């Protein structure tokens, strides 16, 4: 599918975005392991979360999809049924890595696979600690790549694990496996990654302790099913917030969006670039702060980013690259080598595709240098099968002269199926005025 985006001088409106992808996955998973029912409101019906839903159903979890909610009948810890068929995680790293953590503690055999992109992504980062806990796991290339086969155990060993990467997927897989271990399991990460698993575990009644960059839990605790209202996905909102900042006449308000500080690094960077923005926390949903964000058209300047903020804006770097191309001066992003292991190598794909529009982007081993302020010219670009690259390029298309055509735009369905419509509405509404 191709998405055509024309230059829009105005981008204006008040919107809500679909439910958070990370939180939707976790609500399904924890709901399945809990006692009693978990009703999930504002669940993200994107392909990634639907892959998790299907895999759980294949293991005997009863999940009913209603118009505006999903009902999960928990099976309790350790009661997953052996799936008769291969589990397909599609494009979703979260599905594969978090499911491995859960499967490790269930005494069943399962085979997991995914699409071509997921079969290239490193799985050894979760396999290594899960094997230390006692799970048996096999995979291609000496056990690093999917398809994977796992034989879980009735009892796992607790571990104290120091992760070499700041990855919420690694941390979550170990914590989920830790639920099945007698005693205390801990994970220490090099920088704080998103903490949705910790928050939701606490919300479901499992005490999780944090000391600095270490988080601990005691296994064999009971999870109690609870209603979960999923906040809007900040990473989805980010495309519109960024678009408003770079649009000549932009003003976008996103309501009821998740404002978990482990996710909102982009707001700090936009502010440092000179963006006009306002944030208002209005409440808490299932242990997650929620509120409204407004961003207006702004004179932007380049910045240098790196270090602990990177995991807090990791999924926003593609669109941040677009913002940097529109800012005056140079933006340097360092310490972001993790981007090479996402749905595409996002350092390479963003540099290549933005380059097609005339942006000046240099690729570093662990980041990018963007020389901003060069006018962008519409062109044909590719998504590389990566939803965030597709949406970031659509945002670039709004400020590029003429027309930008994004090939492979169906990738967007992974996380934000109504993105094209919402973008057209905001740009179109404004044009009609
Ligand atoms: C996610 C964690 C991040 C993020 C991904 C979703 C999660 O990946 O990029 O989109 O839901 O835990 P890593 O943990 O691999 O950095």
Automatic annotation (TrEMBL):
Annotated metabolic or biological route of this protein: Metabolic intermediate biosynthesis; chorismate biosynthesis; chorismate from D-erythrose 4-phosphate and phosphoenolpyruvate: step 6/7
Keyword Transferase carried by entry: yes
Name of the protein in its database record: 3-phosphoshikimate 1-carboxyvinyltransferase
Top EC category: transferase
Assembly information from the UniProt record: Monomer.
Entry's Gene Ontology cellular component terms: cytoplasm
Residues in Enolpyruvate transferase domain copies: 8-420
GO terms of biological process kind: amino acid biosynthetic process; aromatic amino acid family biosynthetic process; chorismate biosynthetic process
HAMAP family linked: EPSP_synth
Its biological purpose: Catalyzes the transfer of the enolpyruvyl moiety of phosphoenolpyruvate (PEP) to the 5-hydroxyl of shikimate-3-phosphate (S3P) to produce enolpyruvyl shikimate-3-phosphate and inorganic phosphate.
Residues holding 3-phosphoshikimate: 21-22, 26, 167, 169, 315, 342
Annotated phosphoenolpyruvate binding sites: 21, 93, 121, 169, 346, 388
Gene name per UniProt: aroA
Entry's EC annotation: 2.5.1.19
Molecular function GO labels: 3-phosphoshikimate 1-carboxyvinyltransferase activity
Cellular compartments annotated: Cytoplasm
Catalytic activity: 3-phosphoshikimate + phosphoenolpyruvate = 5-O-(1-carboxyvinyl)-3-phosphoshikimate + phosphate
Keywords of this entry: Amino-acid biosynthesis, Aromatic amino acid biosynthesis, Cytoplasm, Transferase
Chief place where the protein resides: cytoplasm
Family matches, as PROSITE patterns: EPSP_SYNTHASE_1 (PS00104), EPSP_SYNTHASE_2 (PS00885)
Active site, renumbered: 315 (proton acceptor)
Native source species: Ammonifex thiophilus
Family recorded in the similarity comment: Belongs to the EPSP synthase family.
């Amino acid at each position: 599918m191709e998405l055509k985006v024309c230059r829009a001088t105005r981008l204006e409106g008040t919107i809500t975005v679909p439910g958070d992808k990370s939180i939707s996955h976790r609500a399904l998973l924890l709901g399945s392991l809990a006692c009693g029912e978990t009703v999930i409101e504002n669940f993200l019906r994107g392909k990634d979360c639907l892959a998790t839903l299907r895999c759980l159903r294949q293991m005997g979890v009863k999940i009913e999809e209603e118009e505006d909610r999903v009902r999960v009948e928990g099976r309790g810890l350790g009661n997953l049924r052996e799936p008769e068929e291969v589990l397909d995680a599609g494009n979703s790293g979260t599905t594969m890595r978090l499911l491995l953590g859960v499967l490790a503690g269930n005494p069943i055999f399962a085979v997991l696979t995914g699409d071509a992109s997921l079969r290239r992504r490193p799985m050894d980062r979760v396999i290594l600690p899960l094997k230390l806990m006692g799970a048996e796991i096999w995979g291609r290339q000496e056990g690093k790549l999917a398809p994977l086969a796992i034989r879980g155990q009735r009892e796992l060993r607790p571990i104290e694990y120091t992760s070499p990467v700041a990855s919420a997927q690694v941390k979550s897989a170990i914590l989920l496996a830790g639920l099945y271990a007698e005693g205390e399991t801990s994970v220490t990460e090099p920088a704080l990654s998103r903490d949705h698993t910790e928050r939701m575990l606490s919300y479901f009644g499992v005490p999780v302790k944090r000391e600095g960059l270490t988080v601990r839990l005691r296994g064999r605790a009971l999870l109690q099913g609870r209603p979960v209202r999923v906040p809007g996905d900040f990473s989805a909102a980010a495309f519109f917030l960024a678009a408003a900042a770079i649009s000549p006449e932009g003003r976008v308000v996103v309501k009821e969006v998740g404002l978990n500080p482990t996710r909102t690094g982009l707001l700090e960077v936009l502010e440092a670039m000179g963006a006009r923005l306002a944030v208002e926390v209005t409440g808490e949903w299932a242990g997650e702060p929620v509120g409204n964000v407004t961003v207006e058209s702004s004179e932007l300047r380049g910045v240098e980013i790196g270090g602990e903020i990177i995991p807090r804006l990791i999924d926003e770097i593609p669109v941040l690259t677009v913002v940097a191309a529109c800012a005056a001066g140079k933006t340097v992003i360092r310490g972001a080598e993790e981007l090479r292991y996402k749905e595409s190598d996002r350092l390479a794909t963003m540099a290549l595709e933005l380059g097609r529009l005339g942006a000046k982007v240099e690729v570093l081993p662990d980041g990018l240098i963007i020389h901003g302020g060069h006018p962008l010219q519409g062109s044909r670009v590719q998504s590389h099968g990566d939803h965030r690259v597709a949406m970031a390029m659509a945002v670039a298309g709004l400020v590029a002269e003429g027309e930008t055509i994004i090939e492979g735009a169906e990738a967007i369905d992974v996380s934000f199926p109504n993105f094209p419509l919402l973008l057209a509405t905001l740009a179109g509404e404004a044009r009609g005025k």
